[in-house]
# Entry
Amino acid sequence: MTDDGENMESIIKTIDIHKSFPLGNHEMLEVLKGVDFEVQPASLTILKGRSGSGKTTLLNILSMLDDPTSGKVIIDNTDVGSMSVRKRELMRRYNVGFIFQSVALVPIMSAYENVDFGLKLAEYKGDRDARIKEVLSIVGLEKRINHMPSQMSGGEQQRVAIARAVAHKPKIIFADEPTGALDTATGLGIISLFKKLIEKEGITIVMTTHDPNLMSFGDAVYEMEDGELRYVPGE
# Structure
């Protein structure tokens, strides 16, 4: 990783992460093979790699949706493995947001209602109405606030999903192939939006992609290949 001279504290750090899955014949498939990885706060970190390379498995472990077979995940100076299931659940609810390739909006809810639903799940204590309008404006959908998902394009639906993910002011967003179902131009627009959110909200975003058009936008780019991660300079 490049040294910017600021000696910034990592918001995410992994130490020798291994992950294996049983194959059913007393053999194990090793998907992650000793991953050491750091993410700086208020940055866009991109994990690239072919399908099956292990990048989604790593993202699931970083986001506490899965546990490593061995190794440590440290988030915001806390060893996740030492936390109770309840504390990890609360960290995911309050401090983490998720964006997926499938936008997973509630089809019978408007853009406004979908974001409000996310705020309710996160038990947001602020002014929900003001925050919903703020984030929908940030993602450029202030005029689509009452539209249903079926009335919006794929890119607009993904923007609603992003607004919902950031509305409760999480520290970290994990995005798994967030542009995978979008055309290149729309995908580039989503990445530009990520950069805007980092600047305006101070959020940290870790995303996976296999799209080479997006690599130059990352503050740090890593390539996953055969379960091993390497830093890619100068993307």
